[in-house]
Amino acid sequence: MKPTLLIVDVQNDYFPNGKMELFEMETACENVEKLLSHFRSKNYPIVFIKHLATKPNATFFIPETVGANIHKSISPLETETVIIKHFPNSFRETGLHEFLQKQNSNDLVICGAMSHMCIDTTTRAATDLGYSCTLIADACATRDLIFGEQKVKAKDVQLAYMAALSGTFAQVLNTENYLSL
Q: How far apart are CA 43 and CA 109, in angstroms?
């Protein structure tokens, strides 16, 4: 069975000079590009998830802004699917689950942003829906977080979320390991 590549929220606002710049997003995107090239060469299914903000006080991913666009380095082809979401969970109030069922896709390869938000909730939801998930850690990005008066560095956030998802919710690999399978 062919795996489906799920590229979550690789949008301009997460890159340098964007409204919500993430730590090492450019490096993560380079790995997304490698995965995308691999999936295209195999003619495997690819789904792009694009988040558009709907809250009145939203500060990024504002509809019809450059920041909300999928990054040009991984622009979807006309034949590839783009699903719009408005919540961290890519399955919530979208047609993603139905689309994957129609494609008979049970194995997901997940990458994108933010590790602590949309990647986490999407991976957990996918597992709850019965999908087998592979999460590509170095093709995901996050940012520093604040908890109380503590600043949690992005590298620590990334490690914590990958560790939490590893095993129960996903097989967590890096790009090189995945492409060598």
A: 14
Please give the model's pTM, rounded to 2 decimal places: 0.98
φ, ψ for residue 32, nearest 5 deg: -60, -40
Contact residues for 169 (Cβ-Cβ < 8 A; gap 6+): 123, 124, 127, 133, 135
**Cβ-based burial of 76 (10 A; exposed 0-12, middle 13-18, buried ≥19):** middle
Measured between alpha carbons, how far apart are the two ends of the chain, in Å? 15
Angle made by CA atoms 65, 19, 34, in degrees to the nearest 5: 85
Check residue 77 and report its DSSP letter.
P
What pLDDT, in 10s, does the model give residues 55-91? 999 999 999 999 999 999 999 999 999 999 999 999 9
CB atoms closer than 10 angstroms to residue 128: 11
Task: For 120-175, give the DSSP string.
Answer: HHHHHHHHHTT-EEEEEEEEEEB--EEETTEEE-HHHHHHHHHHHHBTTTBEEE-H
